[in-house]
Task: inverse folding
């Protein structure tokens, strides 16, 4: 097999392989279904916008190479397409799955491959992935190669060798999602609900959410921890899991952005960008000291976050935590929000403010999109929109409701 597949041919072939496993009831694919699979915003890097003509041309080339076949079922008006890669290359299911992900998402580390092939092939552990990669390099015509690790990463990355010009890993999807998220803040009002796992993210998307945000408290609870106990690595994995699954932008409740971790705030933003974050928040409460940061320290943190976010087009939200911790001096809260705005924050957030008069004053004084936490007693969504609020989030309200309902129902089983 000649190793000169084009970017479009790789995308079409990878999509055919993937859908043969993930949507077998709809496989082989029509041309339109294949085009949609190629242009997905999730699980694709880079994100493409292929036309039907481009997909048809790639299919013609793949058929000529013996890598794909097309047929028109009796009584059907549309052609159906399927891959026949294994007729050209003798591959086992694990190798096919690895190649598909590398074609669709660019270079990957073994841990990423294990997670992202799970619907096509189940690897037992990382050593199982490593064994498959080694078998693909040991061939007379190697199919993959190790390209080393990126700064700050613990695993080497691997890429396929099916093209003269390999699709390089890029931040195109992350930037597209960031652009979409930013556009939501230009006018109008939207609800930003907070899922705590993939199931809740799916449910909220099905209800029509145009964007989602993580919840630090909800996620911590889902892994058996208290709020503000989640590690940076745990958060990054959580974000990566959600962005690989979600079709809408994801904002990250990233607390203080882990200033004391290796690389500090800047490195945390880079890691969250690599995981696909469209937006990031930073807050001014220090749980170690149990106090709100001094203004100068808080501003420095926002400035550092703003510089890092600008590298990835990420929307930065700055939070003043005064009202969550009983500090109800509205003038101080507004002064802080203005300072955070001037330090580079695009969106402002003071969780705990629910009085309509206070909300209107904050909006008027800060002149930036404002997020309001939908606490009990807060104005309705319609009222918030009329006040000029740009977005309303739910924080841990939904995860708490789910946990409390589960606890109450479970308690019934233990009654004696």
Result:
């Amino acid at each position: 097999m000649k190793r000169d597949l084009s970017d479009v041919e790789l995308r079409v072939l990878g999509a055919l392989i993937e859908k043969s496993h993930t949507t077998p009831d709809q496989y082989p694919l029509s041309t339109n279904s294949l085009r949609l699979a190629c242009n997905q915003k999730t699980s694709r890097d880079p994100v493409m916008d292929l036309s039907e003509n481009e997909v048809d041309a790639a299919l013609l080339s793949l058929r000529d190479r013996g890598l794909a076949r097309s047929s028109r079922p009796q009584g059907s008006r549309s052609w159906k397409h399927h891959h026949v890669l294994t007729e050209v290359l003798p591959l086992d299911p694990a190798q096919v799955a690895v190649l598909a992900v590398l074609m669709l998402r660019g270079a990957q580390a073994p841990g990423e491959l294990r997670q992202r092939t799970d619907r096509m092939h189940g690897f037992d552990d990382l050593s199982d992935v490593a064994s498959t990669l080694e078998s693909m390099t040991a061939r007379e015509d190697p199919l993959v190669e190790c390209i080393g690790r990126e700064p700050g990463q613990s695993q080497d990355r691997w890429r396929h060798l099916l093209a003269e010009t390999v699709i390089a890993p890029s931040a195109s999807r992350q930037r597209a999602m960031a652009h979409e998220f930013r556009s939501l803040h230009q006018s109008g009002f939207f609800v930003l609900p907070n899922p705590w796992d993939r199931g809740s993210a799916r449910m909220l998307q099905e209800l029509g959410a145009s964007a989602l945000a993580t919840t630090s408290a909800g996620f911590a609870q889902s892994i058996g921890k208290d709020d503000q106990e989640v590690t940076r690595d745990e958060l990054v994995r959580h974000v990566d899991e959600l962005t690989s699954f979600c079709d809408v932008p994801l904002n990250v409740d990233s607390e203080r952005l882990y200033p004391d971790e290796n690389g500090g705030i800047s490195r945390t933003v880079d890691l969250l960008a690599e995981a696909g974050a469209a937006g990031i928040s930073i807050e001014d409460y220090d749980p170690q000291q149990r106090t709100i940061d001094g203004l100068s320290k808080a501003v420095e943190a926002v400035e550092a976050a703003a510089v890092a976010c600008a590298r990835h087009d990420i929307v930065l939200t700055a939070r003043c935590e005064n009202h969550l911790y009983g500090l109800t001096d509205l003038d101080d809260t507004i002064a802080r929000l203005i300072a955070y705005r001037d330090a580079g924050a695009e969106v402002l957030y003071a969780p705990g403010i629910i009085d309509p008069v206070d909300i209107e004053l904050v909006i008027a004084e800060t002149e930036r999109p404002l997020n309001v936490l939908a606490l009990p007693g807060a104005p309705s969504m319609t009222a918030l929109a009329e006040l000029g609020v740009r977005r309303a989030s739910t924080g841990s309200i939904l995860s708490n409701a789910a946990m409390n309902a589960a606890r109450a129902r479970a308690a019934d089983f233990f009654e004696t």
Summary: The two ends are 69 Å apart (CA to CA). The CA atoms of residues 200 and 293 lie 33 Å apart.
